[in-house]
Structure formats: C-alpha cells, structure tokens
Design goal:
By secondary structure, the protein is α/β, with parallel strands linked by helices. It has 2 domains: about 280 residues, TIM Barrel, CATH 3.20.20.70; about 80 residues, Golgi alpha-mannosidase II (Immunoglobulin-like, Sandwich). The protein is built from 14 helices and 16 strands. The protein is globular, with a radius of gyration of 22 Å. α3 runs parallel beside α4. Helix content is about 35%, strand content about 20%. The strands form 3 sheets. It has an 8-stranded parallel β-sheet with strand order 7-6-5-4-3-2-1-8. Strands 9-10-11-16-13-14 form a 6-stranded antiparallel β-sheet, with helices on one face. The structure holds alpha-D-galactopyranose. Alpha-D-galactopyranose binds next to loops. One of its GO terms (biological process) is glycolipid catabolic process.
C-alpha cells in the first residue's frame, strides 16, 4: 500500500510529467469550426452558420451519416466564441445560454451516442483570441475539471493574452490538471506558435511529454497562398520539426480547408497529400452539409488516410527540391512501405518529371506502386525510369509497397513485409 502510494506520488512529482494518456497514437481526425465559421455569433440573422450547438449537431450528423466516421473523422471540435462573457457563480466557464441552451455535457453525449467525440477550446491568458474569458494560472484546475465533468474528449489551449513566463507555467500545469481529472482528454497546445515555433525557444522534447499535438505556426486562411506558406515553413524547418512528432505527439500545421472556397481540386489534393506526409492531424474546417463531391472524394481517399494514419507514426520529409520547381517528399511507412509525393510549384502547365526509384534512394528491387488519387497500380523496378505528369500547384502521390525482391540477406524479411503489406493495406484500400 505504502509502496504503491509512493509510486503514485512520484508519478506526479516529476517536473516534466509524461503525457501518459495513451491517446492519439495516430494523428487525430475530425472537424473543427474555426477556419470556416470563425466567430459568427449572429444566430438571429445567420442561424445555420453561427457558433451554436445546432452547428455542431449538424456536423455530427454529417460525420456519422456520410461515411466520415468510419474513415476515422471522429472529433467534432468547438473553437473560440462558444462561451458566455461571464463565468458562473462558482467561477466556472459556461457556454453562451442562447447559442448552447442544452449545455456542453448534452452536446458531448450527442457526440458519444453517435460514436463521435467532442473537443472544446480555451486560452492560456486573460482572454481568448476572440475576447472571451481566458484561463489564467489560478483557473487552470477548475477549467480542466469543468471540461472533464462535461465529458469532453479533447481540449485546444490557445495562447492569446499571456506572456512567455505564464505560458511556460500554464501549458504543463494544464497537462497535469487534465490528467488529474482521470478522464482521457486529448491535449492540443498552441504554445509553440506563440514562441516562433522553433528551438531553442521551443522545446519539442518537453512538448511531446505534455501535449498530444501542438500548433507550431500561423493560422491557416482560405487561400492557396496560405497553404503554400505553411508547407514551406514546415519543410524548410523539417530538421527541427520532423523528429518532434510520433505516436501520441504531433505537429499541427492547422486545419484542412478542402471543400471551402480558396483551393482548386489540384491544390486540395496537394494539401491532403502533404498533410499526410507530415503525419498531421486531419481536422477539416468546411461545411459538410454542402461539400462538393470532388472535395469529399479527396478528403475520403482511403489510401491517403491510410498513409496519414500509418501505425509507425514517423513523419516524412522533403527529399528533393528541383530547379524545375518540382519537389519530392517521402515518408517511411509500416511494413517496409513508403509514400512519395511529387509536388509542382510551377504555374504554367503539367510538368513531365522523370526519375527512378534508385535516384530517390530506394534499394534494389521491384516495387508495387499505387497512385493514391487515381487508384492505378503498376510494378516498378528501382532502376527503371518513370515519368509523372504533375499539374501546376498539384501533386502526384504514390504508395510504394515493400520491394518484392531485395538483396541477399534482406530477401526473407522483404518478402514477409511485402506479404503483410498486401494482406493488410491493399484490401483496406479497395474496400
Ligand atoms: C487563434 C488560433 C486559431 C483560432 C483563433 C480563435 O488565432 O490560432 O486557431 O483558435 O485564435 O480566436
């Protein structure tokens, strides 16, 4: 008894308590209100789009009825502007009574009844970025408990209106407070985004111990410029960022804006492909009630999702930047497979890019290729030249299975991995 008490006490006493909540072993997937619906609180004039329980119930209905949930899109996340301007008489956060008349717990139950999860938003600071009540250091425990009492499953902790010292205390404290509630709550930290996103100001080892995911960089907007800017920042800084992520701890380049107004279908495929290479959380911020079939089929692409959700959880990297404006990205996957993305920064016409797997550092052997967005399959030897035609601002994305024939000692292992890849991955793809 004493011994176990001691163990328990010591589990809590470390200064960097590991976030041992067992959650998000693969990047979380779902829907998040912010980019598409912002702080629209005008339910009088815009009842369908305002931040209210109806919006989240509508999205939950779509997720559970239109095939999203089965693909892994299970989180329905509230962002800013949900709360009342005042805390209640016990000092607890409370939702705006007009827009969330049923309360947050009822909304959480609505999600759980449909096999979904509810996320909510708070801010380490005096106010949220939208000016609603924030969580100062003295409010961390009560807010964590309130969220747990409501049966919420994920918490995004923004960082407006606090300084570096407060953040350094507040983000780890919130992690402890959430853990102490005993409810598994996925923890999304905006901390690094407020500190420039890079070492030495940001300590990614510590973040991996206290948060499940973290925003590293600027907010996404509904434009290709914004997506490209995010892609460039993450891959220009891949040496610092790529090793930070893994099962239970993810870099978050922000929401998917596929299905909104700013991206062409090619650009939408680029976002889906590169978010999958990065092992990024896949939170759509769009209107699932009116989404086009083109956008839907990109977001519901099982091979891209399979790559994003790979069990090994190792993010990929940019491996080539060609003068032609073609860039090549590579992500290692379980079962000795990998993913390749050929991305074009060009703005003229489809570019015919020639390479070979050998040139891209693949070992000797014959590989099976699946084109992620066309579903076409082919066999390809490492030494054979291939040509991919990459549209302007678009991608060609490949799933590359383990080599059927590898060298010498690797022969056995290679074949086994290939068999596993064929048995496990490919049937999933063509379900
Ligand atoms: C910040 C965050 C966004 C969003 C808004 C809400 O800008 O980075 O993701 O949560 O605040 O006000």
């Amino acid at each position: 008894m004493h011994f176990s008490l001691l163990l328990f006490a010591c589990a809590l006493c470390g200064s960097t308590l590991a976030l041992n909540n067992g959650l998000m072993r693969t990047p979380p997937m779902g829907w998040l209100a912010w980019e598409r619906f912002r702080c629209d609180i005008d339910c009088q004039n815009d009842p369908k789009n305002c931040i209210s329980e109806n919006l989240f119930m509508d999205m939950a209905d779509r997720l559970s009825e239109d095939g999203w949930r089965e693909l892994g899109y299970v989180y329905v996340n509230i962002d800013d502007c949900w709360s009342s301007m005042e805390r209640d008489e016990n000092g607890r956060l409370q939702p705006d009574p007009k827009r969330f008349p049923g309360g947050i717990r009822k909304l959480a139950r609505y999600m759980h009844d449909r096999g979904l999860k509810l996320g909510i938003y708070g801010d380490m600071g005096t106010h949220t970025c939208g000016g609603y009540p924030g969580t100062t250091l003295d409010k961390i425990e009560i807010d964590a408990q309130t969220i747990a009492d409501w049966e919420v499953d994920m918490f995004k902790f923004d960082g407006c209106y606090s300084n570096a010292t407060e953040q350094e205390q507040g983000y780890p404290l919130m992690s402890k407070a959430l853990n102490a509630t005993g409810r598994p709550i996925g923890y999304s930290c905006s901390w690094p985004a407020y500190r420039g996103g890079l070492p030495p100001k940001v300590n990614y080892t510590q973040l991996g111990e206290i948060c499940n995911l973290w925003r590293n960089y600027d907010d996404i907007q509904d434009s290709w410029d914004s997506v490209l800017n995010i892609i460039d920042w993450f891959f220009d800084n891949q040496d610092a960022l790529q090793p930070a992520a893994g099962p239970g701890r993810w870099n978050d380049p922000d929401m998917l804006i596929i299905g909104d107004f700013g991206l062409s279908l090619d650009q939408s495929r680029s976002q889906m492909a590169l978010w999958s290479i990065m092992a990024a959380p896949l939170f759509m911020s769009n209107d699932l009630r009116t989404i086009s079939s083109g956008a839907r089929s990109i977001l519901q692409n099982k091979i891209a999702i399979g790559i994003n959700q790979d069990a090994m959880g190792m993010p990929g990297r940019r491996i080539l930047k060609e003068k032609s404006g073609i860039e090549v990205f590579w992500r290692p996957l379980s079962n000795n497979a990998s993913a390749l993305v050929f991305f074009s920064r060009r703005t003229d016409m489809p570019y015919r890019y020639t390479s070979s797997l050998r040139q891209l550092n693949f070992t000797t052997g014959s590989y099976k290729i699946i084109d992620v967005f066309t579903g076409k399959m082919a066999s390809l030897k490492d030494s054979t030249d291939f040509v991919v035609s990459v549209n302007p601002t678009g991608v060609v994305m490949w799933y590359v299975s383990a080599p059927a024939r590898t060298n010498l000692n690797h022969l056995r292992r290679g074949q086994e991995a290939h068999r596993v890849a064929e048995e496990n991955f490919i049937p999933y793809v063509f379900l």
